Structures are given as structure tokens and as C-alpha cells.
């Protein structure tokens, strides 16, 4: 029988929780001590001085405000009320001792659920309005009550603004994560489609050739079977590489000894063309310009674009078609063109097929230009221009 050890989440062990609680309630005790000293102070202390002392002392409640804001609010309301009613200063300034209450109320509005925030704001409003009615002299009652309401409203508005900023930040993070997941899903879909579609297309063509000549030309049938085996192994290696990359929890994690091969690039275009010649499609690869070592993402994209274009030639252009691949290394970009003389059909990105759409997406992600369509003289043309980043054009291949 297997047993699994249960571990507490990081930062929630008993020792850390006890120390945090000790600091929170220790700060609360010091705050109450400061309020008690104000209660025992002489009658000469002004309300402004008492409010200043309580505002400075409210910093001792920082931990309690963060983790138990309701308790911190109740403590400040109690301390402020006791100090206000016991103050020697009989003027309206003694109502300033409720400023720490408004400060903590803003934290409650910012961090607690709406129902709790409304209940806390209503309770504080009732206490402050009653205190203003009991403590402010008759002629100053209206002004004192108005100041109390404005201070309360200001703290609530500040808390609401902080809450909205937090909600907006959470929404932005969630949107960024969703977009990243979508982009990665599309990248994997493009990679699997380009790899599997090409391999399956070649296998289908070679299997058809082998089936037609197995009785009359066994050597040619054996050659077709060899091509099927080679293509299948290449497809399995590519799938294994993709699955290993997906299963890794971290970039540096070991892959469990599963053999992988490097990602394909422009260096493999000649081998790609050679693998298709046995399918009855003649492929010619031309290199122009000064060859350069391309960045990995551009290198892979060039290969996949050519691979998908040649796969479409095998599928749609007919068995006797010829294709020409041109890779032109220019000063600031690399230009790729694949043309054939078969039976091309107009296809637009976003149509029913995934091949043209995948090529278009690859080029768009690299800020390049892409075009695909039938040629006036017959056949089909696929062209892509991929800009090279600064510094990559001078690295010899």
C-alpha cells in the first residue's frame, strides 16, 4: 500500500504562523497602550495632538490590518471613541481622533468582500455621526458632522480605487496567461500539423507507389518501403521531441533518457527535397545571397514553410509535378519561395485548410510578409519574407 506524506504549504508552518500572530497582536497591544496613555494624559492635550499620536501609532497595526482588518477596525473605533469622550479639549478638534479609523476603514474596503466592507462602513458612519452629535458644540454640530462624513467618504473612495486597481491587475494577468496559453497551443498545433501532415503525405504516396509496382518492379517497391520506414522514423523522432518538451516541468529538467534530435532548419532542406523525389515530385533547391546562421525561430519557420509547401505539392500538384525552392539571404531579411508547375488552387489564410493558415501565422509572428496563390502560367506559388534581427546578419553560417 502506497502512502503519501502530506506537507503544509510553504509559509504556513506552525512556527511561522505563531510568530506572525505574535507580531500582529504585539503591535495591537502597543497601539492600545498608546491610546491608554492618551486617556491618562492631562486636560491640556489638544484633539489635534491626540489624533497625531493615534495616526502614528496606527502603523503598529499594519500586520493586523493586512490579515485581520475587522479586528483592527474594531480596535481603532474603540480607542478613538474612548479618547474622544475622555479628552480634556472640549472643542470639535477631538473628533480628529477618528482619522485612524477612517484609514483602517479604507484598508477594509480595499481588501475585504463587498458585504463586509458595506457593513464596516455603515457601523463606522453610525459611530462617528453619533460622536459628532454628542461631542460637538451646538453651533459647530453641522460642520463637525460634515467633516466626519467627508473623511469617511474619502477613505471609502480611496479603498474602492485600490480595490479596482487590484481587480484590474488580476484581469490583466489572467488575460496575459490566457493569451500565452492560446499562443502556445497554436504553436504546438502548427508544429504537429506541419510535421505529421508532411510525413503522412509522403508515406501515403510511397505506399501507393509500392502497391502498384510490387508485382512487376520489386526493387522499386523495396525503395518505396525504405522511404516509408525512413519517413516514419523521422516523424516519430519529431513527435518524441515535441512530447518531451511538453512533459518537462522546467527547461533544465532531465528528459528521462529519451533520445531527441535537434529541431530542423534550413540545413535540412536538401535532405527534405531528396526525400520527396522518390514520390515522383522533382524538387530543386536554390540558394542565393550569402548564407547566414539564422536565429532558431526563423530557422525552424523557414524549414516548416518549405515543408508544408512541398507537402501541398505532393498532395495537390500531381505525381509528375516539379517544384523549385529558393532561399535568398538578403541583407535584412531571408526570402523563401516555393513554386510548382502542378494544378494549384487558390487558398486564403483562415480557409478550410490548416497548412496555408499555419504558414501565415508563422510569418505573422515573425513580423514578416506572406503570400500564396496560383501562378498565371500554372501551378502554385508560396513566398515568405522574414526580417532578420539586428546582429544576426553578420554571423557566418
From TrEMBL:
InterPro entries: HATPase_C_sf, HATPase_dom, Sensor_HK_TwoCompSys, Sig_transdc_His_kin_sub3_dim/P
EC number: 2.7.13.3
Histidine kinase/HSP90-like ATPase domain location: 297-390
EC category: transferase
Reaction(s) catalysed (UniProt annotation): ATP + protein L-histidine = ADP + protein N-phospho-L-histidine
An example Gene Ontology molecular-function term: kinase activity
Annotated TM spans: 21-41, 47-64, 117-136, 142-162
Pfam families, alphabetized: HATPase_c, HisKA_3
Record's keyword terms, sorted: ATP-binding, Kinase, Membrane, Nucleotide-binding, Phosphoprotein, Transferase, Transmembrane, Transmembrane helix, Two-component regulatory system
SUPFAM superfamilies membership: ATPase domain of HSP90 chaperone/DNA topoisomerase II/histidine kinase (SSF55874)
Signal peptide per UniProt: none
Name used for this protein in its record: histidine kinase
Organism classification: Bacteria, Bacillati, Actinomycetota, Actinomycetes, Kitasatosporales
Amino acid at each position: 500500500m502506497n502512502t503519501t506524506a502530506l506537507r503544509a504549504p510553504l509559509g504556513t508552518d506552525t512556527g511561522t504562523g505563531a510568530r506572525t500572530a505574535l507580531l500582529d497582536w504585539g503591535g495591537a497591544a502597543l497601539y492600545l497602550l498608546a491610546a491608554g496613555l492618551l486617556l491618562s494624559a492631562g486636560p491640556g492635550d489638544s484633539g489635534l495632538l491626540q489624533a497625531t499620536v493615534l495616526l502614528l501609532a496606527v502603523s503598529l497595526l499594519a500586520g493586523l490590518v493586512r490579515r485581520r482588518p475587522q479586528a483592527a477596525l474594531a480596535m481603532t473605533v474603540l480607542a478613538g471613541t474612548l479618547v474622544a469622550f475622555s479628552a480634556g479639549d472640549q472643542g470639535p478638534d477631538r473628533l480628529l481622533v477618528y482619522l485612524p479609523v477612517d484609514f483602517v476603514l479604507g484598508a477594509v474596503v480595499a481588501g475585504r468582500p463587498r458585504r463586509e466592507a458595506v457593513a464596516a462602513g455603515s457601523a463606522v458612519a453610525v459611530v462617528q455621526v453619533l460622536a459628532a452629535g454628542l461631542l460637538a458644540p451646538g453651533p459647530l454640530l453641522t460642520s463637525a458632522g460634515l467633516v466626519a462624513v467627508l473623511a469617511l467618504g474619502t477613505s471609502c473612495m480611496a479603498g474602492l480605487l485600490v480595490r479596482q486597481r487590484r481587480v484590474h491587475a488580476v484581469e490583466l494577468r489572467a488575460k496575459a496567461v490566457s493569451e500565452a496559453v492560446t499562443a502556445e497551443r497554436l504553436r504546438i498545433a502548427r508544429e504537429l500539423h506541419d510535421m505529421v501532415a508532411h510525413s503522412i503525405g509522403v508515406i501515403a504516396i510511397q505506399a501507393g507507389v509500392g502497391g502498384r509496382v510490387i508485382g512487376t518492379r520489386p526493387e522499386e517497391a523495396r525503395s518505396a518501403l525504405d522511404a516509408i520506414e525512413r519517413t516514419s522514423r523521422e516523424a516519430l523522432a519529431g513527435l518524441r521531441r515535441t512530447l518531451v518538451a511538453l512533459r518537462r516541468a522546467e527547461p533544465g529538467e532531465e528528459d528521462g533518457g529519451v533520445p531527441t534530435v535537434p529541431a530542423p532548419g534550413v540545413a535540412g532542406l536538401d535532405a527534405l527535397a531528396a526525400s520527396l523525389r522518390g514520390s515522383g515530385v522533382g524538387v530543386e533547391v536554390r540558394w542565393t545571397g550569402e548564407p547566414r546562421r539564422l536565429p532558431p525561430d526563423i530557422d525552424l519557420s523557414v524549414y516548416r514553410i518549405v515543408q508544408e509547401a512541398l507537402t501541398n505539392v505532393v498532395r495537390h500538384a500531381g505525381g509528375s509535378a516539379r517544384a523549385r525552392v529558393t532561399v535568398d539571404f538578403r541583407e535584412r531579411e531571408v526570402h523563401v519561395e516555393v513554386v510548382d508547375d502542378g494544378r494549384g488552387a487558390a487558398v486564403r489564410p483562415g480557409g478550410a485548410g490548416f497548412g496555408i493558415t499555419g504558414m501565415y501565422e508563422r510569418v505573422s509572428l515573425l513580423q514578416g510578409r506572406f503570400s500564396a496563390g496560383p501562378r498565371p502560367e500554372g501551378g502554385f506559388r508560396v513566398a515568405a519574407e522574414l526580417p532578420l534581427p539586428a546582429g544576426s546578419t553578420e554571423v557566418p553560417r
